Amino acid sequence: MQSLDRGLGILEELSTAGRPLGITDLSRRLGLSKGSVSRFVTTLVQRNYVLRDPDTAKYRLGLRLIKLGHMAAAKLDIRDLAQPVMARLHAATSETVHLTVLSDEGYMVFLDKLDSNKGTRPNIQLSAHLPPHCVANGKAILAFRPRTEAERILRGNLHRHTKTTITRWPEMQVALDNVRRLGHAENHGEFRDDVSGIAAPIRDHTNLAVAALGISVPTNRMASEHCEKLTRLVTAGAREISLAIGRRLDDEEGMDSVKPPVPAGMAATTGATERCAKGPIARRGKEVS
User: Sorting pLDDT into bands at 50, 70 and 90, what band is 230?
Assistant: First the structure.
């Protein structure tokens, strides 16, 4: 067990160092003799968990670890991981909670849901396919996917469903930038006048959104105070699921391909209170939420 523990310690040091390490570096970091480190590293190299650079005699993680990581990620069922979070969210809000993914065809697909126990509630069918530009879940996912992917899916497909639906690509770009800045998306009657919602992205180890956790409510219940509560709970829940599927906390800002500039004169820490209190954010006289 001690040998296993030390071998795993070497892998962890190589994963967090940010650069290849030599035997001396590893010995110092682990508090082990160079001889012991050398023996452990030799075994790891033989099994392709670690690679040795012949020019520098330093070591880095090997391809076998990448393969194992992909195999582990593929076996994770996001529904199983999300269910306890959804149950707590449902208990705390009594609203309709749902888990969605983006299909290959560019639609939001509902994987799981817990219906509201209130008399008036949205009617959401499992496996329903909805356009992503006018539901909170769709905007939450596409805001944290590469910009080129969002444009491919949305540009030319921004069909109007209600008077608040975004139908112009420049306005949708601004809306997605707002979602990235705030960390969550909102829908104020954009697909159906009587249904609104909040959603937050579920992000994997690459920091890209692979799903979204959302809450749908009748529009007449989307008062500012309720909206703020839902936003806090949904965002925390999506973050918990993201950590369960491998998202790392040392890259909170995300990838450059999905990270927007902070608008001039606007603090990067703008939060849900401002967003919910004012409703749809206006830019150049247009509603772009």
Answer: very high
